[in-house]
Amino acid sequence: xxxxxxxxxxxxxxxxxxxxxxxxxxxxxxxxxxxxxxxxxxxxxxxxxxxxxxxxxxxxxxxxxxxxxxxxxxxxxxxxxxxxxxxxxxxxxxxxxxxxxxxxxxxxxxxxxxxxxxxxxxxxxxxxxxxxxxxxxxxxxxxxxxxxxxxxxxxxxxxxxxxxxxxxxxxxxxxxxxxxxxxxxxxxxxxxxxxxxxxxxxxxxxxxxxxxxxxxxxxxxxxxxxxxxxxxxxxxxxxxxxxxxxxxxxxxxxxxxxxxxxxxxxxxxxxxxxxxxxxxxxxxxxxxxxxxxxxxxxxxxxxxxxxxxxxxxxxxxxxxxxxxxxxxxxxxxxxxxxxxxxxxxxxxxxxxxxxxxxxxxxxxxxxxxxxxxxxxxxxxxxxxxxxxxxxxxxxxxxxxxxxxxxxxxxxxxxxxxxxxxxxxxxxxxxxxxxxxxxxxxxxxxxxxxxxxxxxxxxxxxxxxxxxxxxxxxxxxxxxxxxxxxxxxxxxxxxxxxxxxxxxxxxxxxxxxxxxxxxxxxxxxxxxx
Length: 528
Description:
By secondary structure, this protein is α/β, with parallel strands linked by helices.
């Protein structure tokens, strides 16, 4: 495409008009000595600038000829910037018909109608030509300066329009490239203006949260009616970037958020937020931290359990001898019975320590899971006080497990559920075969593909706060009242250790005031 287009087509059946316009726009060059004198007077740069005013002129004497010349010029990539055209050009097309045909070939061509008559009103001309923004009328007889002004203005306009179009194309390509980059990102990205309105989201954000444009960011992401108290929006507008980790309840994921100032070429500002999903990373960190806590408990359990167990055996032995030797009605007999009772409870506590210890591996065998669940429920929950809704089908897949250890798991969870609910509460227990445990895991890394039996225990109790929910599997953590019977904080820690020694998975969801749901996945035997 021509960079500085000063090509002009003269369309007129009168050769004299061609000569007149040519003399005006392309006068004969002055003698060399006169050109040198002009340079001395105006300066060399001014003389060169004046020389740039030369135009390239071509002539057509009929409308059909002009249309063909414009068509060929377009095909060669050397279009005309403008044309002077007569209205009357017998015997062929008149000027108005020619204009219509020329604009079909080249919509950007500037046209000046030269006429001495009023064959067509401006309204008629406009009706025959949809676009008249590049169409002008010059009455005969014309002045030289009018011809020069039209030639200079329309060729300059053509060049400016092409430069603008080129800039717009470059800007469009840049925008397309930027959009492609944003669309290819694995991280979420969005932009909001100073008033918190979202003006852009990439596909990752839309897939996770839905259509966003025009919505307020705190309403869209967090379903709030006011600005989030943790928001770094204002900090970004001071020129400082921001970074924070945040859990989004809308999709139950944790993100690493990086916010920076976004400024357009016209000076408008916004906040660009990059959202990296670190849910699985945090889950792995939590799992590692939990493993470290259990390792500490294991070391402690290994050192304490055996020595403590030996001491308890002596205490229990002597207590039972004292019970046999004392009168059953005596005060001493009752006191020794309490000693024996507490010693047996302490022995059970030692058993829990041993379960936490790697020294105590489960003795796995095929066992009917339905029978184990119902037995643990009968031993741990008084169904006269707490309503239980149980569904354990007979066709559950077989699981290889340690009945004593897994029975302890179910008993602990059932007991926790019963203690959490009021008198009118309910415990729902469901067991089913499952081949897709990943769909139920929001926190832990997904289990390997395979067959599992899924057990869901849901209560309608008081629930657990988010702060406490993160610590429920920690050894010695408990929200219960401390005593010799409950509140030692080993129940769920023990359940976690047992389930993972069975290559299974446990997860807990809870909402304060709405209850708690425990989901357990146990791998089935290879023969299933």
